Each structure stands twice: as structure tokens, then as C-alpha cells.
Amino acid sequence: MAEPVASAAVENVTNQAMECASPYLRYFFCYGEIVQDFTNQRKELKLRKQRVNIDVHVAKRQNEVVYEDVEDWLKRAETELEDTQNLQDEIDRVKCFKWCPQWGWRYCLSKKLAEKTPLITKLLQTSNFAQVGYRGSLQGIEFITSTDCMDSESSKSAFDQIMEAMKAVNMIGLYGMPGVGKTTLAQEVGKHAGEQKLFDKVVMFTMSQNPNINNIQDKIADVFGLKFQASSPEGRAEELFKSMQRVNKILVIVDDLWGEFELKSIGIPFGDDHKGCKILLTTRHQQVCTKMNCQKEIQLGILSEDEAWVLFRDKAGLKDDCSTLNDVAKEVAAQCKGLPLAIVVVAKALKGEGLDLNGWKAVNQRFKDSRHLDNEGVLGDVLKPLKLSYEYLKKGNSQMMGNDIQMCFLLCSLFPEDFEIPIEELIMCGIGVGLFPYANSIKDKRNEIGMALKKLQKSGLLLETDDAEWIRMHDVVRDFAHWLTSTGENRFMVKDKLKEWPHMVESFECYTAIALWNCSSNIKFPDKVEFSKLKTLFLAAKSKWDCFLVVSSTFFEEMKALQVLYLQNVSFSAKRFPSLPNLKTLCCDCCQLKNFPSSLTNLENLALFHTKIYGKSEELVKLSALKYLRLSGVQFYEESEIKIQPSLVPRLQELHIESENTINLLELNSLSCLTTLSLRLSTDQFSQKDFVFPKLQMYTIVVNGRFTYESAFRILKIHNFSSSLSAFSNLFYNVEKLELKNVSGQKNIVPSIGDMGVNELTSLELESCNDMEFLTVITRDQGQSVVFSNLVTLDILHMASLKGLCYGLSPTRFLQNLKQVIIKYCQQLQVIFQIDELSEKMQRQIPLLSNLTILNLDSLPNLESIWKLEPSHKEIVSLTRLKVVTISDCNKLETIFPACLAQNMLHLQELNIRRCDRLEQVIGFVQEEEIIENDCPLYCWPKLEILRIESCKSLKYICVNTLTPGRQSLKSVSIGKCPKLIQVFNSEQNKYGQDILLPELGSQESFVNLTELVLTRLLNIKYLLSELTARTLVHLEILNIRHCSFLEHLIEEVENVDGTYVSNMKNHYPLFWPKLKYVVIESCENLKYLCSSTLAQRLPNLYSISIRNCPRLIQVFNMEINKDEFELQKLTLSDVGDSHQLCNIDVPVLNEDCIVVENHEEVFQVQGGSSFSSIEELYLANLLEARIIWNDFAQVVTLDNLTI
Q1: For this protein, what is any one GO molecular function term (predicted)?
Q2: Cβ contact 388:381 at 8 Å
Q3: DSSP readout, 1112-1130?
Q4: Which pick of 321, 535, 757, 786 has the fewest CB atoms within 10 Å?
Q5: pLDDT for 1026-1054, tens place per residue?
Q6: Which helix (H) or strand (E) holds 288?
Q7: Residues whose CB falls within 8 Å of the CB of residue 22, separated by 6 or more in sequence, listed in order
Q8: Is 480:387 a contact under the CB 8 Å cutoff?
Q9: How far is it, in rounded angstroms, from Cα 602 to Cα 561?
Q10: How many CB atoms lie within 10 A of CB 199?
């Protein structure tokens, strides 16, 4: 007992002595405590860095911009971890020698650790970021010139006038008839303005007859990175107004303006409010330009006869000859009256019809026989060719099918102008009016209507959108459709923004389709209206929250023929709702229903979106004739979840329930007609052990995840699921998109999940399935299996147990269609593509990975090889389509590509490699001697544009002698923190006797497209460029060199080279870096010359030079130029040596506010009346060697604008 007490007393006395004595004693006696503290703090920093990295990764995936202080913290943390790695290694080594005190050694180590620990602690204290990124502004819309329109004299003239007018005026109006190409030309102006950087922001939006102000404001706000705080249009306009005022130069393109409009009501400042904001508007009517006070009005005319014929001939696929057939075709083209839209539509309609001379004559005669259109004036000239295209829809089809395709076209005209039409809603309308009656199932009807819409798109009558789920109709074509339905059997009425019920002299009886959009909620609908022929009714109020169009149920009583009813923002009671015996399709969007109209016993298609119903969901199953039921965002006031019994609707073919529900899954098996299913489910609904989904043709099933509807796919998403997957066994055989997240108990996909090989699968996403070891396991007993033969995209994240893609022999056609591979955070993965395990049969198949285009590998700490490849297998692997490769944090990887594969990567465009500590070669050889011995001129990577390599501390070679990338496509090269790098591309010491990083490689086009060159922390580089290579950098804009300690010359003159060749090079590239704008050189301690003293350079666009910490620098540039050609505006020289003259530059127009020159004898050496009259502020600091500011009094007296 006395011994512990004595020990404690000694320890207490020792601690007090430590506090009072010199801190250096602590390094001797508290070594263990100091080591433990350092180790704990360093480990915490490493973990904290990983967590911040994950947050940054998530932010970037959500298109957020990472805060600069976060990026800076990560860099500092990375630097600190790298700097202290040696100390950690030293600690680990000493553990083996505890018996030997080595007091002097311990003292030194303890002192280093004690000094580093507070730095790490400070980093940890500053790492608590509330968020790591923010939503940045978009770059603006991408302007794409239509390929259906040609460059005409009219469009060229209008373009030139617009660009010239922008220099002098703020409001420009472009007008012309419908379909003449105003929108296309406006897009081209926006594209040109963006590419030439004439404006800081370019935004374009469409007004149309009834503009949606909120949508327009949202679109502009996206470009300016603005998040609205206000909800009213006025408040949003004020926020947008202030945001736009903060941007200097803006181009706003207002397309399709129909009348006078106050742009400030949207929030667009111009004129005195913002003189840097230019407005270009397009309109059909010149008087709109006048009313908008356009300072320049420009008309866009139609094509000339020759231009029209060239466009028609190209789009119709006719030969350029002088045949009689072409003479007749020219007459047809002439009927289009030079209108580009009409020419394209008609030509596309006739293309591929195989018309002979008589056929073209018949077409021409049909144009001439349209006598009833002759009095329509200009409108008739446009409608006549469109009518021909409309009639051609019947060609090659039966009478019934032709009529149905035409009806699809007419149905599209019921939607609002410039509206993106949901194809699914259009299909439901088409089915409702009885299109394609010979197709028995909904699936067959869907396919028929889908093919009809594609035919309409190909004929030019409908337009595609960015989303394949929507289509659009050009406003001129829509006008034509309305003209068609103004008379005849199918008469349509389409109105927008009704404020009162129309009082019409004629009866409503003649109309078969009526569409009333954006109606005022104050309209008083009549109790009854005679609609005896009405088959389709669209009724929609203005989109306002809790503001509905109130309609009495008796309003529908006389609509006995009604087949399709589409309601939006409508409220009505269904208590006395008429039976409407012919109603087949009912769609309610954002409606409010008091009880559900169960009297609709013949209803076959029901779709409810974001609709509130005062009643119970079980009322829906009383509609026993239903074949299609879709519920999305539906709320029943008497129920918290949807409770329906599908078995009570036995004829159901398609069931889509995207809201939370308590459906009994066993009842699905009683639906013998069910072919399509969309369900959002929870784990609790799989309590029945015997349940198995029926075989389905189309489905989207989401378990414990977010539901997104896709109409034409087989999608299965299972999240947070630990039960057996046997319920899905009938779906795995044809699933197209499979997503498994946090699914336990499965060691592989094949055979555990899909024993048939899941060969319909095109997309596979796996995340946090920690029991899974391989995607597929194939034993020799199973023979040859076909597995994953159609897989296109493969995403694997956070798979703790994943060891490889395939265990055993690779199956037949394995991954033969794979295009994208993303694998991240898989700790046990050692090899990605185990090519040496290929079966003999596989070797005779299509080359493996021949379709791979994107490869992204990140945070795979045990990855030793991407491709395990035997030499005998090199013929069965092909990377010819690989375009983008990104490798990050794969610390055991020593090479990226085997030499035999790199030779065939003909389409590689982008290569990114970061933080691969053991990487020595990008293109690897078995033995390093092969790099030097093998010097045959074999070229690869001819399309490489971007090369980025960072923090690869063991990297020696990027591309070796035998493999020289095709440098003609290179645009950006960025290499940093690669201290052992010996060469980037092949060395040519044998020819020139030089040791140069980027030497001349025998081609006059070496790096002709390179725009950016960034090199940091390359410690073995003495020379960067040869003179001949440098002369090819005609597009270089940015040169950034930092921390290259041994670099002596940026550009080294080539000696002992044929004089004729050098002379030819100088003649071929007379301007030396003519586009160079920015030069940054920092911490290159041995740098003497940027360019050799004997080289004269012309740098007409040089904007900024910043050179710091280059103490041995003798000369920056040696330039002989005219004052008018020199554009330098920023000059910073700091710690750049003690020579008398760094630049022999006569600098007449330094326009920037600030010039900084430090530690230099003479600031301005120029003489002879040179003027610095534009300088407003001049900062001179740390001029330790300076003796003279100006050596010419004439320079001083010209500083008229100097204020500080």
C-alpha cells in the first residue's frame, strides 16, 4: 500500500516541477504524453478531413459552389497531414526500440511533436463548417443554332445590324412574320455574345401571348444565382431588379413579344436604371417595337428564291442537278413563299417518299388547286404548305390510322401556346377519344400514340423538348391547327384568360372540343349549356393556391357525348354529378372534389394529381370499368393514407399510386389484366411471406425511397431493406434500372438475386450493401452463362465488403455494353476488371469494355490494379471509346493504363488524377528500362483536351517514349504537387540533348489548341518548353507556374537544329503567344529567364503579369512592340532579384488602378516621353534596393489622374 502512495507523491512532485521548470525539461520527461497527444490530434484531423471531403463531394453532386474557406481548410489540412507523416512514421519505428532510451533522439522528436500539435489543434478548431457550399448562378442558356435554317442574306444583314446597334443603343427590336426565323437568329446573337464575352450575363426567355411571370422570373433568377425571399411577383421583381443592377453588362433577349409590356414588372432594369443592360426583343408585329420605344428596329425578311430552293433541296434530300424533276420541285419550293418554317416542314414531309416526276407534278398541282386559301393573304401562304404536310400524314397508312394521327396533331393544339405538353396526358386524351380502336390494351394504344407523335415530330409539325416525356408545338403550326378546326366536322374552341363566360351568337353545339385555360375564378358558369357534340373539354383556372374555379355539377348534364374531361384548379361537388355514359378519361390536376363521382360507371381512365377529395379512397374501386388508375399527391380528408382494394377493379391494366398507401400486395395477383404497375411502398407492406409480384411489362416500384415517375421503363428501387428479396423474383428477369441501397443479406447479384443473369438491366446502382462481395459468382460447374450483357451504367458507392465485379470465370458477353463506371469508397476492392480470368469462349466474343466512355474511381484505398491483364488477352480488351477518366485517392495504384491498352484509347478527351500516393506511371511498363530503351514513334490519345494531375508524390512519368499523346487537341494542362515527376510526354534527349518537360515532338502543331498551362510543385524540372514547342502555343491564354524550385528557363532556345526547320517554324508562327492574357510565376527560386534574352516576343493581348519570389530572375520579357499593340493593365513584381532592368517594356497605357513593384532598384526605366496618364492609384512597398522611382521628369508630369 505504501508503494503506490509513494509513487503518486513522486509523480505529483514531478508534475509541479515540470510546471515551474523550463518547458524544455518537458521534452525529456513527458515524451509519452506528447506522443499520445500528437497521435490523437493527427488522427482526429484525418477523420475530420474525410468528413469534410464527403460533405464537399455531396455539395458538388448537387451543383453547389464550395466556399473558398472550406477549400483552403482542406488544402491546409492536406499539407499538415503530409508534413507530419514523417513524424508519425518515426513514432511508429521507435515502438520497436523501447528498451533503448536514446534521450537525445527522444528530445528532438518530442520537441517537433510539441510544436506541431498546436497547429493541428488550431485546424480542428476551425473545421466546424455549418455548410460547405452554396448554390451558384447558372452560366446562362446554351444558344444552339437550328440546323433547319440556313444563313441567308436577310439573316446575315439583321445579325450585323443587331451587333452594331448594341454598341450604341439599349433597346433593339427584331420583327418579322411567323416562322421566318426570329427566334433562331436571336439565339445565334446570344450564342455569339456569350462566346465573345461581350456581356457578363446573357439570358433569354419567351413571353408569348400570355406570359407566366413567375416562370420568367425563376428562369432569370437561375442565371443570376438568386434565391427569392418574397413570394409576390412585385417583391420578386424588386429582388431581381437589385440583383441585376450588380452585374455590369447584361444582354436580355425577350422572345415572341405580342404587345406593349413593362419589363420592370418582371424585374429587368434598363435605361437610366442600368445603362449596361441591353434588350433585344423579337415580335411578329412592327408596332410592338414602336410601343416598346425600341431605338433600333430591324426587320428579318424571308429567303430569296435561290436560298429557299437550296434549303428545300437539302431538307428534301434532292440531288443538285438540272433535271426536270428538280424544275417541278422548285415550283413546290416556291409555293412556300420563302418562309423557312414552311420550307422545312414541307420538305421533310416529302423526303423519303420516293416521288418520281409524276409524283412531284401531282404535289405541285395540289398546291395550285388550294383556291380557297388564295384570299387568306400572307397567312394563307403559310398555311397552304402546312396543310400539305398535314394531309401527308395519311400517306402510307390506312384511312383509319391516318385519321388517328391527324387527330393526335389536333389534340396537341388544345394546349396553351408555348406549352410543353406531357405525353402521358396526351396519351390518356387520345385513348379517351377512341384513337387506334384496333389496339386492345392500354399498352398497345400507348405504343400507337407514341409512334404517331414521333411521326409528327419527324414531319416538323411537333417539336422535341429537353425532356423526352414532353413535346411542344410551334406557335405558327398551332395557328394552322386552329385554322383547320375553325370549320368542318371537328370544330375546336381554344380560349385563354377568360374573365367572363363568352356570350356567343352561335350555339355551342357545333364544337367537338373546347379548351378554356387560365380562367378567372370569378367567372360565373351557366347551370346548363348545350354541348350535344362536345367530346373533349379542358377547363383550367389560373394557378393560384387555394383559388379554385367553382363549377356546378349540373354544368356537365348536357354533355352526353363527352369522352375526355380535363380539370385544373377546379372545385365541384359530385353529389348530383351526371352519369356521362360516354366519358372514358377523367383527369383532375390540383382540384378540390366534394365526394367522388361514383356515377361514372363507364369511366376507364382516371388520373388524379395533387387533388383534395372530401371522402374515402374506397369510393374509387366502385368504378369497376377502370383500366387505368393513377394517383399522385392525392389527399383524402377522411384518411391519412390511400386504402383501396385493387381486386375490386378486375379490369385494371395499369395502376400507378405514387402517394403513401396501405395496399394489400397479395391482391395484385388477382388482377389478371395488370401489365403496368407504379407503387411507392414501405417495408411493412411485405409482411406476407408468400407474396411475389406478378410478371409485369412495365413498372416503377420504390421501397422506402423517393418516387419519380417514368412512363416507359422497368425500374426497381429498394432502400433500407433487410428481408428476403424473393418477392421481386418475377421482376429481376426483365428489370432495366436496379437501385439497391442499404440492402443486407445479399452476397452477390447473380445468382443470389437474379439467377437468370439480369440481362435486360441497363443501369445498376449499389450503395451501402455491406454484405455484397461480388456482382456475380460463376463457378465452372455452371458452364457458360450470359450475365449483365446489356448493362450501360454502373454506380457503386460505400460497399464495405466488395472485393470485385466477378468471382470465377467471366460470363459470356459480360459488360459488353458498359458505358459508364463510377466506383467510390470501397475499402476492400483490389482489382476492377479481372481480365485474366476470362474464359476461352469470351475471348472470341466482342472485345470487353469496347463501349466504355466514362471511368470514375475514388477513395479505393486497397485498389492495386484497374485492369488485371495478361499479355495474351490484350486483343480481347478495347478502350477505343473511353473519353473521360477520373482517378482519386487510390493510394496503392502504381499505374493507370497498361501500355497495350493505352495505344488504342483514340477518343480519350479528359484525364484527371488526384492524390494517388504510390502512382509512378500513368502509362505503365513492367520494367522502367523499357521506358528508355523503347523509342519507336507510336502515337495515341489524339483527342485529349484536358490533363489534370495533382498530389501524386511518387509520379515519375505521364507518357513515355513509346506513347506520345496527340497534343493537337490539348486545351488545358494542370500538374501540381508531383515532386518526383521526370517527364510529362516523351523525352527527346537523343535528338536535342535537352532535358525539357514539354519538348518539341517533331510536329508543327504540337500544342496548337492549348489555352491553359498550370504547373505547381514540380521539383525535378529544369526547362519547361523548347522554343519550337513554345511557338506552337498560339491559343495559350493562361500561364501559371508555382513552386518549381529547379526551373531555370521557361523557354529554352533549341541549339544544333536544322536552320531551315527553325526558320520555317518562325515564319509559320510569326506571333509569339498572341492570345496570352495572364502570367503568374511564384516561388521559382532558380528561375533566370521567362524567355531567353535573345528572343524577341510580341504579346499583344497580355493583360496581367504577377511574378513573386523569384530572387534570381534576370529578365521577364524582351519585347519590341508598338505602344498601340500593348494592353498590359496589371503588373506585380515582388522579390524578383536585383537586376537593373527586368522588362524593356515601354508601358504607355497601364489602365489598372494599381501597380506593385517591390525590391527593385529602378521602378520605371522607360524614357522618351512615355505616358502613365491613366494611373489613378500607385502603390510602392518594400523597395529595399530601389534608388530611383522615375528617371525622366517627363513621366511625372503626365500623371494627371493620380489621386493617391
Answers
A1: ADP binding
A2: no
A3: T--BSB-B---GGG----E
A4: 321
A5: 777 777 788 889 999 998 888 888 876 65
A6: helix 286-291
A7: none
A8: yes
A9: 13
A10: 21
